[in-house]
Write a structure and sequence with these properties.
By secondary structure, the protein is mainly alpha-helical. The protein has 6 helices and 2 strands, in the order H-H-H-E-E-H-H-H.
Amino acid sequence: MKIHESAENYLETILILSQKNGNVRSIDIANELAFSKPSVSVAMKNLRNSGHILVDGDGYISLTESGRRIAEMIYERHTLLSDWFIQLGVSEKTAREDACRIEHVISAESFSAIKRHVGRLE
């Protein structure tokens, strides 16, 4: 199933915030991404309906297995690409912005090839 780039960004953000803070609520996501609370609320409803997140009675958000799989894939792509760009001499700001755009559209085949190449360089 194809998931939209915005949903991937939300899942990645939930993963990062949960690693950093433990618990994640919609307000944390809104603050992190500088989005409005209503926008985040709609996105969380969509992610819940698609089975990528769970929201408990206190409003805490957790990733389901499918949500975690997507979030970890996107985060790995983001981290590897941005680090590689920085090593190539790209400014950190530009490297992170470019990685954020590329992480959603790069094929699994191309990312695997880059990952193998970067691994040989280290």
